[in-house]
């Protein structure tokens, strides 16, 4: 029998649920979606202003840079000019990929210029995007990389920035009873060195991203979201069109500790601006 008291209690719970669910949905829906500008590497150097405008028009709120140099800046723009261009298009750049092979080899001089550029455009993360083959032959090589990353991370931290490492698939190859990635995770300070997990490369290496999240909670503050082509796994495609189970991955976002979601695509079968718009729409409408 439903008494008035029971009815009111049930109604109260239902009302609370109604209030709570939209707030959770809203919190997820407000997650900004970014793009790694390497996706548009063919177009960007020819027309920086136009490409940035089209990225904003596609819906993106954040961009991740690549290829900065002290001599050429960001595709010919100084950090100040690039910052102004982003503001004009209501974009921010939380992170950038900067070449670190020389630094890992023992040359410290580039790091300060990276820090200055990152600060000038209000970045929060400096990302190590790749390791040259000569730097990653043995477990000892990766231990050296971990030492250099730790040193760079201390300098970044002192400047109010965070260092993060972006993977491909080679880091997951066995080196005796360990892997390069295991070494980088275990021999760097979790409070100083974060990781930008490229989900495509993790899956291509035959691993489960969710398992990585659970084994290393909170380390993966940035994600590269790019899908694996169903017929040709060695190339990627628009997010939602391939074979990666992004819904399961995004359901475990809290465990990963992700703060920035960045779409990336390197292979195209249609106009790249159509592709990035399609990926943005899928992520925003189906994953957040």
From TrEMBL:
It comes from the Bacteria. This is Xylose isomerase. Keywords: Isomerase, Signal. Residues 1-27 form the signal peptide. It comes from Pontibacter korlensis. The keyword Signal applies. InterPro entries: IolE/XylAMocC-like, TAT_signal, Xyl_isomerase-like_sf, Xyl_isomerase-like_TIM-brl. Residues 54-269 form the Xylose isomerase-like TIM barrel domain. One of its GO terms (molecular function) is isomerase activity. PANTHER family: HYDROXYPYRUVATE ISOMERASE, INOSOSE DEHYDRATASE.
